[in-house]
User: Which sequence fits this backbone?
């Protein structure tokens, strides 16, 4: 609770205590009015000041004006009738209680987002004259060397040149499991160094680093309003003057009709009381406050879970998604080649892998790296001579005095070696030793652990169609799609082909379409879809700029979480809209008929607002979605 909230709470308690005390004092007339005026001014002076400023600035019709007119009118009626001032003070008191609840809820949402903002680094360590000096991150240039001690935030994106450590990425990804890093690996700003000292060569300026882009995204999210928020803003601009003029008509037209046409007593006091009650009921606080707060809370809760939404309009669109289109590599698969099968003849599996890794050791191709990784031990290049690369076929080399051939079926045919076909999907490396076929190795892109679970969960969440687009071959794409349960698959597509397919899917008009990609090669498609989701986008400029929603790690289940967060938020928004409008309409009718008194008006205004605000706060809680 901040100082402002504490001060308001003291005012509320003081005014309530004084109001209760006044009921036991046997005073009448002017003294009674002056005594009751004290708690009224304690609790309502700021509302009166705001109403006065609104009138002076010609921005009359707001909730402060409504509360001021209603309570001042109620006080005037009590003076005229020498009656009870409690109603007027109670209306203002409960209104301020509602405002306090709103302030507390907004503060809670802001604290949730401020936890994300804690990723902002305060300084960078650079070496000057043999010692470390703290400088402003803005002063560090690309290529400079910075040092990050244990417990410090990485201030700028870069590459580790010395040291190894574990990094806490929870502020970016929402995941609590630390990630290890070693020399040669890229690291991004905003992560917390947990163990060893890291020496990092910067690859970006501070303003272009991941942390700066994320903070800019979150800070500007509130500027992009949803249709629901625009509706409420327009509604309030029309609704407020309408109820003010309606209350004025309710106060004076019925008495004039009764007196002029019907010859009955005017009973002005009763109709003015009805009009004042009508004004208190009509205050649109529940809608004006709770709807933006619901989106604000939803964006804040999502940010804490590692789902960054660029604005409430995107959150609203995401909730309406019925078709999800996936890129394959890097989204549903790991985007890293791995050896997943070795079919060998008489030679041992480990020996076959070792010979393949040695033969491919001169290549920087991902296939060569996957063979070296599967081999499990460092490659001794001195064991390899006479390496010859045959374009589009493979390589031949002399390993430990043996002639080794490693490549595709074309290479085996070229060398006139009889080989065996493999029915596994992936890249097949056929091996021949000294002219005799020795077996083959299957290398493929591995499906992510939670990919199938994510596709199933999306279907349960109401997504009616899942589609996969890829530049990979038809056989590989078909196998992945079948394994994951994808409804449609389109293969061998160039980036422009993906855009064309997305446009075709958009023409079907089966609800909103979301495209999920890694954000680097898929920027055109991310921009074209109704909602673009970039996943695993830590450090990817293209992802953060092109996508509408950014998932800060590569777990496919985060896609499901993003959809569920948006739907929960919009469900809360719609609940608040219908609840607030329904209660208001019923109470306005009762107030106009003289059935509702000022206490019911207090519930219709403050009670509904408090309930709507408390409901909106639910959007913060997204961990279990």
Assistant:
């Amino acid at each position: 609770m901040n100082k402002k909230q504490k001060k308001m709470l003291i005012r509320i308690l003081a005014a309530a205590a004084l109001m209760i005390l006044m009921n036991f004092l046997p005073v009448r007339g002017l003294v009674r009015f002056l005594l009751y005026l004290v708690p009224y001014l304690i609790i309502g002076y700021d509302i009166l000041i705001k109403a006065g400023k609104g009138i002076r600035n010609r921005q009359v019709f707001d909730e402060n004006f409504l509360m001021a007119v209603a309570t001042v009118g109620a006080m005037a009626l009590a003076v005229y009738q020498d009656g009870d001032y409690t109603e007027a003070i109670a209306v203002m008191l409960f209104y301020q209680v509602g405002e306090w609840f709103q302030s507390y809820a907004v503060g809670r949402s802001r604290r949730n987002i401020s936890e994300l903002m804690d990723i902002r680094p305060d300084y960078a360590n650079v070496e000057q004259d043999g010692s470390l000096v703290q400088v402003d991150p803005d002063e560090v240039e690309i290529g400079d060397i910075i040092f990050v001690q244990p417990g410090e935030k990485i201030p700028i994106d870069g590459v580790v040149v010395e040291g190894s450590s574990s990094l806490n990425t929870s502020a970016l990804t929402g995941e609590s499991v630390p990630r290890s890093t070693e020399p040669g690996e890229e690291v991004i700003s905003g992560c917390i160094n947990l163990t060893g000292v890291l020496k990092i060569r910067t690859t970006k300026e501070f303003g272009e680093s991941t942390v700066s882009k994320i903070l800019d995204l979150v800070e500007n999210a509130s500027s992009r309003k949803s249709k629901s928020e625009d509706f409420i803003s327009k509604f309030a601009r029309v609704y407020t003057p309408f109820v003010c003029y309606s209350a004025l008509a309710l106060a004076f037209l019925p008495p004039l009709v009764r007196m002029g046409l019907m010859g009955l007593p005017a009973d002005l006091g009763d109709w003015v009381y009805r009009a004042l009650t009508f004004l208190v009921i009509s205050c649109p606080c529940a809608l004006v406050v709770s709807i933006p707060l619901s989106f604000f809370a939803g964006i804040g809760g999502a940010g804490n879970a590692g789902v960054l939404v660029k604005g409430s309009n995107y959150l609203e669109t995401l909730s309406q998604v019925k078709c999800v289109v996936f890129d394959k590599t890097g989204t549903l698969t790991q985007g890293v080649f791995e050896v997943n099968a070795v079919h060998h003849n008489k030679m041992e599996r480990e020996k076959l892998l070792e010979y393949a890794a040695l033969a491919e050791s001169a290549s920087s191709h991902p296939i060569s790296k996957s063979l070296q990784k599967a081999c499990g031990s460092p490659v001794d290049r001195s064991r390899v001579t006479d390496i010859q690369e045959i374009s589009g076929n493979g390589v031949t080399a002399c390993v430990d005095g043996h002639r080794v051939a490693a490549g595709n079926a074309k290479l085996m045919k070229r060398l006139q070696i009889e080989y065996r076909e493999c029915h596994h999907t992936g890249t097949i490396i056929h091996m021949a030793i000294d002219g005799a076929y020795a077996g083959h190795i299957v290398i493929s892109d591995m499906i992510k652990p939670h990919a199938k679970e994510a596709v199933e969960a999306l279907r349960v969440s109401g997504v009616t169609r899942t589609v996969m687009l890829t530049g990979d071959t038809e056989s590989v794409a078909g196998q992945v799609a079948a394994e994951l349960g994808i409804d449609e698959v389109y293969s061998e597509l160039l980036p422009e082909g993906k855009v064309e397919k997305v446009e075709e899917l958009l023409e079907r008009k089966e609800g909103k379409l979301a495209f999920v990609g890694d954000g680097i090669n898929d920027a055109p498609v991310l921009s074209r879809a109704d909602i673009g989701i970039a996943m695993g986008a830590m450090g990817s400029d293209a992802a953060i700029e092109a996508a509408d929603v950014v998932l800060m790690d590569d777990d496919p289940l985060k896609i499901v979480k993003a959809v569920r967060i948006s739907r929960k938020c919009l469900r809360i928004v719609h609940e608040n809209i219908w609840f607030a409008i329904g209660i208001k309409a019923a109470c306005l009718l009762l107030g106009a008929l003289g059935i509702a008194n000022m206490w019911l008006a207090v519930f219709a205004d403050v009670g509904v607002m408090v309930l709507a605000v408390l409901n909106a706060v639910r959007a913060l809680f997204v961990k279990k979605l």
